């Protein structure tokens, strides 16, 4: 079963990387130095693994543009579908659903699409099907984050896959969040669904487009 933690994110000792990367990089660099002293030909192996660990544990600072009425991507990855569904947990209405699938090498941080207050948090245990599976949204390990904004509610759904099994939530119910603020982490490839009331937004993106959390402007409010 996936592990879920709820805690405020602490500063990382290595800028741009998650705190959990520090011991891994320390071990990797230590092994690289040891290999250089004993078997120099083997040194590229631990060095390459160290570089891979650094790439997988990226956690960069991002400055989200201040654009009135704008909604930003909640996750890094490719938009695979844009469709309509009925959402019964938090929104209780017909919704527009935008599905983003992150590759293992994408930054694994889910960020708030806009300013608001966390009103709903739920972690649901489940399976670890491929995130492209049609049943993944209902059967996989997942985390729901509902946010009330000035223009209405939105729901974020993070879905774990076969390799992404530890969902870390960095916010609590009742907490105010700003656009681009870190909400949760799910590494090694995951799926993030953004659900909003139908006709609330004018989309600026399309299927198969790559987006960057907190930076890519994906929609504008219809009333803006």
What is the 3D form?
Answer: elongated
Give the number of helices.
3
- H/E topology pattern: EHHEEEEEHEEEEEEEEE
The third-level CATH topology of the largest domain is Glucose Permease (Domain IIA)
What's the structural blueprint in terms of helices and strands?
Elements: E1 3-6, H1 21-38, H2 44-56, E2 70-72, E3 77-87, E4 93-101, E5 109-111, E6 116-124, H3 136-139, E7 142-149, E8 152-159, E9 166-169, E10 176-177, E11 182-185, E12 191-197, E13 201-203, E14 210-211, E15 217-221
Parallel strand pairs: 1-9
Antiparallel strand pairs: 2-15, 3-4, 3-14, 4-12, 5-11, 6-7, 6-10, 7-8, 8-12, 9-11, 13-15
Written overview of the protein:
The protein contains three helices and 15 strands. The protein folds into two domains: 21-56; 70-221, Glucose Permease (Domain IIA) (Distorted Sandwich). A hairpin with a 5-residue loop joins strand 3 and strand 4 (93-101). The protein is elongated, with a radius of gyration of 19 Å. With 224 residues, it is of the alpha+beta class. It is 16% helix and 37% strand. Helix 1 packs antiparallel against helix 2. The model is unreliable at 1-8 (pLDDT under 50). An eight-stranded antiparallel sheet has the order 10-6-7-8-12-4-3-14. Strands 1-9-11-5 form a four-stranded mixed sheet, with no helix packed on it. It has a three-stranded antiparallel sheet with strand order 2-15-13, with no helix packed on it.
């Amino acid at each position: 079963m996936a592990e879920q933690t709820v805690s405020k994110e602490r500063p990382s000792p290595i800028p741009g990387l998650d705190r959990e990367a520090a011991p891994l990089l320390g071990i990797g660099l230590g092994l690289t130095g040891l290999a250089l002293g004993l078997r120099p030909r083997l040194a590229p192996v631990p060095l390459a693994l160290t570089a891979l660990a650094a790439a997988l544990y990226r956690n960069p600072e991002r400055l989200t543009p201040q654009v009135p009425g704008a909604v930003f991507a909640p996750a890094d990855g490719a938009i695979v579908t844009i469709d309509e569904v009925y959402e019964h947990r938090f929104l209780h209405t017909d919704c527009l659903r935008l599905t983003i699938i992150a590759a293992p090498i994408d930054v694994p941080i889910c960020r708030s699409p806009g300013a608001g207050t966390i009103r709903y948090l739920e972690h649901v245990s489940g399976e670890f099907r491929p995130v492209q599976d049609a049943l993944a949204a209902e059967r996989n390990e997942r985390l729901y984050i509902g946010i009330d904004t000035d223009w209405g509610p939105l729901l974020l759904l993070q879905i774990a896959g076969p390799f992404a099994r530890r969902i870390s939530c960095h916010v609590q119910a009742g907490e105010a969040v700003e656009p681009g603020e870190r909400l949760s982490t799910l590494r090694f490839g995951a799926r993030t669904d953004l659900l909003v009331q139908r006709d609330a937004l004018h989309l600026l993106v399309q299927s198969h487009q790559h987006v960057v959390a907190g930076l890519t402007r994906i929609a504008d409010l219809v009333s803006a």
